[in-house]
User: What shape does this take?
Amino acid sequence: AQKITQTQPGMFVQEKEAVTLDCTYDTSDPSYGLFWYKQPSSGEMIFLIYQGSYDQQNATEGRYSLNFQKARKSANLVISASQLGDSAMYFCAMRELAYSGAGSYQLTFGKGTKLSVIP
Amino acid sequence: SQTIHQWPATLVQPVGSPLSLECTVEGTSNPNLYWYRQAAGRGLQLLFYSVGIGQISSEVPQNLSASRPQDRQFILSSKKLLLSDSGFYLCAWRRVGEAFFGQGTRLTVV
Assistant: This one.
């Protein structure tokens, strides 16, 4: 079973509007972290935002916010006031304990959502 | 500040040739290090991770191997490349709350 599910292969949004990118996850580890990354066409992975499983408040970083609904196991990324430069692939990832290596963690990524911002 | 260097940026190699991709981290000690592969149009697949010198865990059995000869150096290797090894390879290191990636290596096996 997939650990990270991003159900939207592609999304379009009008410039200056807000957009929500979906992410659901599956883990039995009580302690985990959730990340969002942006990957422009250049290929580099740009860290956007992080949410810990015990964090009480939703994470926010500038125009990015993470809508964390623990009971639903969802961690949607909300981008407000979209800009043309936001066009990119967006990956949701989860950090969880890697039982194959004692005390170590691994990051598992979803398949990504391609966001296109329309002028 | 912490930085991560990965090279080369692009590589074209013939089938059957060896491979060595290098990743080094600056500004931190004893980092957890990761190698990921991203095939065209797909998400990231974890290949290897390391929690310390000489400690390598493999997530996916394949034609590749990894080594960590020094605390902040992580190397991805292959003795004989296959066409299916083509892809975008990313090195990363992680600390609590964040994970940082190198610029990536675009490998084309021909």
